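Hey, I'm writing a tutorial for new members on how sequence and structure tokens pair up, and I'd like a real worked example in the thread rather than a made-up one. If someone can provide the structure for the chain below, I'll link this post from the tutorial.
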Amino acid sequence: MGNTFGQIFRVTTFGESHGGGIGVVIDGCPPKIDVSEAEIQRELDRRRPGQSKIATQRKEEDRCEILSGVFDGKTLGTSISILVRNKDTRPQDYAEIATKFRPSHADFTYEAKYGIRNWQGGGRASARETIGRVAAGAIARKVLQHFCPKIDIVAYVAQVYDLVAKIDNSKVQRADVEANIVRCPDAAAAKKMISLIEKTRAAGDSLGGVVECVVCNPPAGLGEPVFDKLEADLAKAMLSLPATKAFEIGSGVAATRMRGSEHNDPFEMRGGRIRTSTNYSGGIQGGISNGEDIYFRVAFKPPATIAREQQTVTASGGRAKLAALGRHDPCVLPRAVPMVEAMAALVLCDHTLRQRAISFHK
């Protein structure tokens, strides 16, 4: 239950943080889509641990293996399975939490739900589960590009703690995002963010922030008008990521401080097609894309694992102190960027295939 996402383009992830490996099974991918392990690996490398001095120092190459569904570099239309084997596991680091609940982790809630849990790291709740999502997202991008050649998805770090970058989301370029280890296209803000993360890590603490994402050149007509609104599915996708706390699309909460006459996006003819002169809607109206850029923000909390002693209780209810052990990110934002892009790709790919299934009028 709860391990599968999507309706036509469906992904099911599996694996635990310190188990044998992490993977994904993809159903509903059209045949004859060009796919290679190298393309998937490129995205996994952006997500993997140990990639910079501000990320967790767990040493994992996260090498992907396509086990089925691809032949001679093309998808077969059958189930695609991808596996990444865990290498640098240290389950002994987590022996203390076999009987203690870590504050703000899923330890207690998993115990409450299942009556049993894998206490070696985060188990199924670990961010390593997102390996499967990122691998599937790489394939979803290829499907999207096949049907919508101009579409592009770019996410970036817009805020770390109280440091807010100055970014024009209509002009952001992937090269600028990847130009620094914090993945913020505002170079001046990035320098301050990196310094703050380093200082916070040295103090044994952690930081949260905001990832923004822009979908450039999406087609109009994606999304359903009621329960499967495009923004609703994007919100579900983003809030299913570890450590997420909030989702905003378009003007978001700022719309509450505007009047209708200010917030409405007037229609006009531009470049031979219907466009809007402003984009407070964030590219979605009535739950359906209108062809303008889709932009949204995802808020991430500070990681719950910190290098400080914390108060907690044992499984039997006794008071206890918990020392911070294991390896962790002082700020998840830089590694969350490819995760956000992957989940956006999965949603858009699924809705693109759903739209093609009903587009008899075109």
